[in-house]
Amino acid sequence: MDVKAFLKRKNIEISWRRYCIDAMGAMAGGLFCSLLIGTILSTIGREAGIDILVKTGGYAASMSGPAMAVAIGYALKCPPMALFSLVAVGAAANGLGGAGGPLAVLIIAIVAAEFGKAVSHETRVDILVTPAVTVFVGVALSLLIAPPVGAAAMKAGAVIMAATTLQPFLMGILVSVIVGICLTLPISSAAICAALSLTGLAGGAAVAGCCAQMVGFAVISYRDNGMGGLISQGIGTSMLQMGNIVRNPRIWIAPILTSAITGPIATCLFGLEMNGPAVSSGMGTCGLVGQIGVYSGWISDIGKGVKESVTAFDWTALVMVSFILPAVICPIINAFLKRIGWVHDGDMILIRHPEK
Question: Residue 141's domain spans which residues?
């Protein structure tokens, strides 16, 4: 049998793009539609005293494993029977993976989905074979590797968080810059933060880095893109600039340097922590999810008795790191880059019309 021909016929593409960009991006979407939206609804419900929102949010958050797995299967273009079977796979991988469950789900759902695709429509009893293979492979792998994978991811995240606590200046820079760059690249910073369970002071640095990219690009490209560009990047995604970054990589200097400045400000000056869902650490100002995550962390800490109340200093820190500092620092750096001729007007246009 020609293996390459079989893989092509089954649309099984073993590549960095398919697994580390498409699958991770979809996984973040699954997290958003379950854990994140559930956290948001629960937080609103608790604050407003609306019990149905609290319950709705709880149910949504509890489905994060299946949501991630199905989203990954969708990105891998699974046929329906394999796609539906990933619900059980996601539940098993996430449950057995513990705090590092998202990384376990990513790895196991990919393998189970590809096995499901491989056997799909290969027999006359596809309705039995495809879900049986997909579920068996996924659950068996979950039992075998989900606990150690989850533990390893949790340990890696714990090391990063401990290092940030011990060296808030240096780690504030590193975490902020790296997560911010991942946000703008066509990979999922949210999925990375979720996989590493990145919260606390490191989570605050990650939020700072993401906001520096999103708000920074939104403000410095305002002349090129107007209000539409400001909104689409400021509360959407800075990934929209990737095409322009490829054309002129120097337009990325200002947002990156901004994240290198706001990261240690967040960790050293404000002590900003993100103790909500770890995925929020990698979302920045996208739908204000990063800020909602910080707020939900405050509420959670109050409930645990770790924090007494939300103070004016807390709000000042969040607003400064998320919006004001990036909106001020990034244009100053970009103005210098324009002055020396590295960046020009028109370099950050989002919609380019073909020349007639």
Answer: 3-155
- Check: CB of residue 278 under 8 Å from CB of residue 202: no
Report d(CA 326, CA 258) in Å as an integer: 6
Helix axes 37-48, 51-62, angle to 10 degrees: 160
Last residue within a domain, chosen from 155, 177, 210: 155
202 belongs to a structural domain: yes
Convert the pLDDT of each residue in 142-192 to its tens digit.
999 999 998 998 888 899 999 999 999 999 999 999 999 998 987 778 888
Q: Evaluate whether 175 touches 193 at the Cβ level (below 8 Å).
A: no
In this structure, the answer to whether residues 150 and 188 fall within a common structural domain is no
Same domain for 15 and 143: yes
Whether the predicted model's global pTM rises above the 0.70 cut:
yes
DSSP of 45-84, one letter per residue?
HHHHT-HHHHHHHHHHHHTHHHHHHHHHHHHTT--HHHHH
What six digits make up the tokens of 24? Answer: 């991770």
